[in-house]
Structures are given as structure tokens and as C-alpha cells.
Amino acid sequence: MFLVTALQKVRHGADAVNASTVLRMACRNGAYVCGFDDCDCLAPGKQADLILIDLHQPNMQPLNNIEKNVVYSGSKQNVALTMIAGKILYERGEFHIGDDPERIYREATRIVRSIR
């Protein structure tokens, strides 16, 4: 997200894009572009795909503009939890991806290679 803002500002000036727009591009618009029309909000009947961000880290302070903190200062270390379709897959450094992670890694590798 930071890279998007930096590139737009170099080309179009400091007011080219704001943090709120970039966050929307990354989340709601990203899901839409990928064809996931049920991932735009948390509501009954929609997919529960979300992350929880740990705001109690130095790079997230001060808390007066959380959108800016996430876009300009956020990193993978701030992700406390990842939930896909209502199932927690990652929580505070631990992956919860089933009994056979190696099988999942092999399948992911196979899929990536088939795309190339």
C-alpha cells in the first residue's frame, strides 16, 4: 500500500491519493477485481475474510489516524490474526492450517507452477 501511494505521489503530486482510498483499493476493491463479491463487508451470509491488526506496536502510534498508520507504517508484524471463510488460519505467530501442512505447501507449489 505504501508503494502505491509513493508511486502516485511521484507522478501526480502529494495529493494524488490518500490513505483511505489506498486502503479501500487494497481491501474492498481488491476483492471486487478478483470476483469476490461477497467479501466487501462483514454481514450475515458473506464470507468472513479478515485480518486483525495489532495497534499496540510502535509503528502504529499515535492512534489519531489508524488508516494512515496502516497504509504508511503497517507491516506483516502487525497482523495478529487472519480469518478466511470464518476459520482462523493464523493467530499471533501460529498457523492453523490443518494436520498436514506439508501437503498444503506441495499443493500450493503445484498450483503456482500450473499458473506460470
Automatic annotation (TrEMBL):
Top class in the EC scheme: hydrolase
InterPro entries in the cross-refs: Amidohydro-rel, Metal-dep_hydrolase_composite, MTA/SAH_deaminase
Secretion signal, residue range per the UniProt entry: none
Keywords: Hydrolase
Enzyme Commission no: 3.5.4.28
Keyword Oxidoreductase part of the UniProt annotation: no
TM region(s), chain numbering: none
Key word Hydrolase present: yes
Amidohydrolase-related domain sequence ranges: 7-89
GO molecular function, one term: S-adenosylhomocysteine deaminase activity
Name the UniProt record assigns to this protein: 5-methylthioadenosine/S-adenosylhomocysteine deaminase
